[in-house]
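Researcher: Predict the fold of Clathrin adaptor complexes medium subunit family protein isoform 2.
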Amino acid sequence: MPVAASAIYFLNLRGDVLINRLYRDDVGGNMVDAFRMHIMQTKELGTCPVRQIGGCSFFYMRISNVYIVIVAVALFKSYFGGAFDEDAIRNNFVLIYELLDEIMDFGYPQNLSPEILKLYITQEGVRSPFSSKPSDKPVPNATLQVTGAVGWRREGLVYKKNEVFLDIVESVNLLMSSKGSVLRCDVTGKILMKCFLSGMPDLKLGLNDKIGLEKESQLKSRPTKSGKTIELDDVTFHQCVNLTRFNSEKTVSFVPPDGEFELMKYRITEGVNLPFRVLPTIKELGRTRMEVNVKVKSVFGAKMFALGVVIKIPVPKQTAKTSFQVTSGRAKYNAAIDCLVWKIRKFPGQTEPTLSAEVELISTMAEKKSWTRPPIQMEFQVPMFTASGLRVRFLKVWEKSGYNTVEWVRYITKAGSYEVRC
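Model: Structure tokens for Clathrin adaptor complexes medium subunit family protein isoform 2 follow.
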């Protein structure tokens, strides 16, 4: 069952109501007093943005010196030139009331896009001297933008050079046991795009996902070509993607917004290609000495390389002195985080650098407690590599004028929570 907003309130830091709009009659005027007494005065604002008091749920956030309960902040910032505070609200009462009437219908959110609302709410807000200047953009057909299927792109765009940039950015998460078995592994990814295209182009993106390839082979009545296919989980798309076409043909077809946007998100849980394997050996020699040996193997291709590799190897809190030998990069002891920090600026593929360290510990008279070894953590970026194996098979652009386009595709894999128990 969809949930509707009964009211929207703008409060200052004292809890005084600056402006409000009631959409339903199922709440009384004492809801502000409840918010002030149970949330503002108890100093629990930072714990959770959603609180339930009695039969009412409060969704709130603080921007500058204003508390907002159920509202889209980016919309008002766009009208006020980036400034959003108590003075901006007091200077724009009429405009705010008009916006609140447009963005909500009986408590249900409607159109929250500043670009579309500015097509028919043309009044400009009173801007502060420190706000950014309004951009002088041509105003397109408001009726088409509000009622048509392409409300995220305006007409009449013209570029001398038509280009499309596509980035596949993945974060690989790993938890490996001390014996080398994988306890948890998954990849979260997103496809970012930047489009500089004239007119109203139609784009079609093909990936090496299993469902899409099988559907394509059925439509073309020919077997699927050999090669790695992957199964995408938890896929979410930008509103520009034609979902009807995706459900029937399993292809990502869309009319892109102008500039930068996030086309889709996904998750992979099977067949993950781990970029690194960490082989640690930690020996405790009595109560005052430790030997640490760590080998890190890059599993990706020899022509590739990782950047900004950081390996954090935990040591006990009573560490007094350390000495290192590394075959690549630099290492040092960081007492603030109780770790040996090994940094390699450029890590080539198919290599196995090693770290050997001797750790001297402070001897204490207190009863010895067993050291619970935290996991080794890694940070890295690997350009032109995807841990999921996702690849772009094609990126096609159609536009009625038939202009030529230049497509750029990049891949990058970053470390999410990449941990190896030692």
